[in-house]
Write a structure and sequence with these properties.
single chain; 213 residues; alpha+beta; Immunoglobulin-like; 2 domains; six-stranded mixed sheet; five-stranded antiparallel sheet; disordered N terminus
Length: 213
């Protein structure tokens, strides 16, 4: 439950950045709601209610919050063409009903200051996935399955440019799965220092389907 709440907190803050660019008054309002004392004008816009977290999980939320709001707007950004995470998925070509198989995702830190990294990959509805931080290198901070078919990993960072990441999770094909092709989709969200740091999002390339024989 704690891990799920932490992942929700990161997703909530990143969602704010996706919906709109925060102006200065919005930044102050979000900081105040996060329990941080800042002087400034409060926004009259509708509030984003933030979840209450306890123990070490609260530090994850605080990290995500600060990365999204410190210094300036939390907007989707674009890295130079020479900077890419080289994000790819590797799937088993053919599986059978009831079989468990491994999904492998690799990516590379595009720049120094690569941090607040969130990987999400989604299989076919009803196909249960399992995750474990031990199946990641460098080791992720959080592994989560907010929905049965959705795998999530979170890293804090920062990491230097060129660090290679390898991620695995497992998928169980239902025993009653019909023959045919099944599609996977996912993305990586992250920030690059220095502040103010916009968020970036890239879709997972590589294999997108497995075939149930």
């Amino acid at each position: 439950m704690e891990v799920r709440r932490a992942a929700f907190a990161v997703e909530h803050i990143q969602g704010i950045g996706r919906d709109k660019c925060l102006d200065i008054s919005d930044n102050l309002r979000v900081k105040e709601e996060a329990g941080i004392d800042f002087n400034g004008e409060r926004s009259t816009r509708s509030k984003h209610k933030l979840p209450e977290l306890g123990g070490w999980v609260s530090s994850i939320f605080l990290i995500a919050s600060l990365l999204a709001i410190l210094g300036g707007a939390a907007c989707q950004g674009e890295l130079p063409d020479t900077a890419t995470v080289q994000l790819e998925r590797e799937l088993t070509d053919t599986v059978t009903a009831g079989e468990e198989f491994v999904v492998t995702i690799t990516f590379t830190s595009p720049e120094d200051g690569f941090h607040a990294i969130g990987l999400t990959d989604v299989g076919h509805a009803g196909w249960d996935v399992s995750v474990d931080v031990a199946w990641t290198e460098p080791q992720a901070m959080v592994a989560n399955t907010p929905e049965p078919e959705k795998a999530e990993y979170i890293w804090e960072g920062p990491y230097d440019s060129g660090v290679e990441f390898t991620v695995e999770y497992k998928v169980r094909v239902p025993v009653d799965a019909e023959p045919g092709a099944y599609t996977f989709s996912g993305s990586l969200e992250y920030y690059v220092e220095p502040y103010p740091a916009p968020s970036y999002e890239e879709e997972i390339a590589g294999d997108i389907q497995v075939t149930v024989s």
